[in-house]
Design a protein that fits this description.
Layout lengths: L11 H6 L18 E2 L2 H31 L8 H31 L3 E2 H26 L1
Antiparallel strand pairs: 1-2
Length: 141
């Protein structure tokens, strides 16, 4: 069992607001800054977490809108389920790989990643998926 008496008690909401999303190892060496990510797993987890959260934030309103507008349709009433599944499955498969690639580049360069950079890369991945999705639909019209 680990003794957590030396760690400050920070609530979940406060961690999100202060961008300290990645849980820290107790005996890990400090990177110099509380919000910098030094280890590959910390970088990967930070980017992946922001990609997953932002993907859900993009897909949830779309699923709610589809649910509200298509609830009486015979077959299309199940479309919101597909939209939510894409909001979950996309980051689980594609987000894992791209987050690992970003963290690998940072590790190969020997750089630290700030939590704000993890936010930008994670939300940027979801934004790129959103833009590509819209462009694919427009190309079929």
């Amino acid at each position: 069992m680990q003794d957590d008496s030396n760690l400050p008690d920070i609530g979940f909401v406060q961690q999100i607001l202060s961008l300290n999303l990645v849980p820290r190892k107790k005996n890990a060496t400090s990177c110099g800054n509380d919000t910098s990510l030094c280890d590959f797993s910390e970088m990967w987890y930070g980017v992946f977490l922001w990609a997953a959260v932002s993907s859900l934030l993009f897909h949830l309103p779309a699923a709610l809108l589809a649910l509200a507008t298509l609830r009486r349709h015979k077959m299309a009433r199940f479309l919101p389920i597909a939209i939510l599944l894409m909001g979950i499955i996309g980051p689980l498969f594609g987000g894992v790989l791209t987050s690992a690639a970003i963290a690998g580049v940072y590790m190969a360069a020997g750089k630290r990643m700030m939590s704000l950079e993890a936010l930008v890369f994670g939300v940027g991945q979801s934004f790129c998926v959103l833009i590509i999705s819209f462009l694919r639909v427009l190309a079929t019209l």
